[in-house]
Amino acid sequence: MSRRGDVYGLLAEFGDPEGILEAVRRAREAGYRRMDAFTPFPVEGLAEELGFHRSAVPAVVLAGGLIGAAGGYLLQYWLNVVDYPINVGGRPLHSAPMFIIVTFELTILVAALFAVLGMLALNKLPMPYHPVFNVPDFALASTNRFFLAVEAADPRFDPVRTREFLQGLGAKGVWDVET
Amino acid sequence: MADETIPRVSGEGAAPVLVPGYTLRTVTDKISSIVIARKIPWTWWPGFGLSALALGVLVVSVAALFYWGVGIWGINRPVMWGFAITNFVWWIGIGHAGTLISAFLLLMRQQWRTSINRFAEAMTIFAVICAGLFPLLHLGRPQFFYWLFPYPSVYNVWPQFRSPLVWDVFAVSTYFTVSLLFWYVGLIPDFATLRDRATRRWVKAAYGVLSMGWRGSASHWKRFETAYLLLAGLATPLVISVHTVVSFDFSISLLPGWHSTIFPPYFVAGAIFSGFAMVITLTIPIRAAFKLHDFVTERHLDNMAKLLLTTGLIVAYGYLSETFMAWWGADPYESSMMKDRLEGIYGPVYWVVLACNVGVPQILWFAGARKNVPLLFVVALLINVGMWAERFVIVVQSLHRDFLPAAWHLYTPTFWDWATLVGSLGLFSTLMFLFVRFLPVISMSEMRALVHQRQGKADA
Q1: Are residues A163 and A140 in the same domain?
Q2: Of A122, A149, A169, which residue constitutes the final position of a domain?
Q3: How many folded domains does chain A comprise?
Q4: Does A109 lie in the same domain as A61?
Q5: For each successive 10 residues of chain B (460 residues), what is the average pLDDT?
Q6: What ipTM is given for this predicted complex?
Q7: In terms of domains, do A108 and A65 share one?
Q8: Given an 8 Å threshold on Cβ–Cβ distance, is A115 in contact with B227?
Q9: Is A10 helix (H, G, I), strand (E, B) or coil?
Q10: Which helix (H) or strand (E) holds A48?
Q11: What residues 73-132 of chain A have any CB closer than 8 A to a CB of chain B?
Q12: Positive or negative, the Cα torsion across A153, A158, A163, A169?
């Protein structure tokens, strides 16, 4: 929900990772909260500066691994012991050591699927459209430029004063972002 | 990602991981230009044409196999596995170095992996595709391949989970899926770069769809890095397990030459050994064709050559241990198998194995040999051949003489055996040629991070 209807916010362009880190820090100090930064490679500490500390990905992967392990073992137990037991040379039907490998493989498989799908879902991807793509210079965000977006939804957002503030941070350029 | 205080592995005099002077823009330009440019080096066309021709050989061989059945191969009783399983083990082993480079070296924070991990991963996926083909073709009734999976059927019978062959199905399909996921996740930011740089509309749209709308948000990168690292942590034990399971196909049986506890580690080392040989075989021509000498430096070749030597020594230990155990175990079947391996009809193949896998790599003790690119290429090729021959010896020589002389039989590969092998090489190289044309051969986002880290230092 943007206040002015057709404006998503402002986008400021920086030339190096140190510039964007400093800009985010100063904008946080100035009280801005609804911000996001876009960089061509992971910049250490940037997410933390933006107030993003803990990612849920590890928990999702752990859950996937546990589901895979339990599911894998129970699958084999149910199929070979309960549903259709086959006596092979009098060996025990519940032959736990023989079940280790498929259990292990399914642990890895489900954990990996959860890692990828979980990462994408938490990032709300795929998202083909996003307002920041409306700024032509944003194409450089995947090469060598670093961008800071301040959303119009931020309580402290003001089209004029926020623009001046961003220019004062040493931005190479500041653009209006249409929704 | 990588810590800046890592000591240099190869000492101060070694070549850099990245030739200095590159910026975020130039490094991206150079790699993306290979994909986006309308022109590619002319050498691509004859290479691709030849590969496509070999792929055609595969199509014909598979068609012939489906029409006439596995009888067109040289397999018989007792040598039922023949070329099919030899090729399966060889191909799947080749894949292992790709995962090792992308996952294990990431966990070890080895910066030199950055410029080779992408095509090493591609190699893994294509090698696993080739590998997966052979057990299916070898089924005899390949149209029923899905019987391998536990699905509810009218027969009510389920797969037998105490059989290594079922373990194989799970290990290989998991390996393929996880390798593909790992590869794709690493490609997402690069798809975004290609999307932003493409000029033609449909090219932009295609990369746009593949990039899933990646925009490089800080929190996205954070989750991306966590997921990528966890995938690496999952892929590392997985890769060890895959060739362990492949070795169980052999060692769980009672056959002399197969029934041995050394098999799992020996197979894993052999897989990494042959895989690194294949990575070197691919790196050298790709680097020359696309002039990537600044990104894939002497340092990379030197490091890979050292790994080749190391894993080669482990494989040599495996050979030694097998031979020693045949003598020490005093089992008449085991010792006659070993005698036949050294002196029997397939003896010359085993001597080729020893020459290529134990003899040839020793030259890599010399720094001069590791820096000599043509020599390294020849060494890698010979190791590829040697490792294929090793699997041939394990499969065919062990099988052709088991316990009862009445059951002994020789195995001679037929025209179709060779055609299928050549065809699988064609499939592999066709996929590889398409890969270098349509996807970035080096990870651009990781290279940008590397450029940034390097700028922090006194330009190493």
Answers
A1: yes
A2: A122
A3: 2
A4: yes
A5: 44 69 88 81 90 96 95 93 95 91 88 88 95 93 89 86 91 95 94 91 92 93 94 94 94 90 93 94 90 89 93 95 91 92 95 96 94 95 96 94 90 96 96 92 91 64
A6: 0.93
A7: yes
A8: yes
A9: strand
A10: helix A46-49
A11: 75-76, 79-80, 83-84, 86, 88, 91, 95, 98-99, 101-102, 104-106, 108-109, 111-113, 115-116, 118-120, 122-123, 125-130, 132
A12: negative
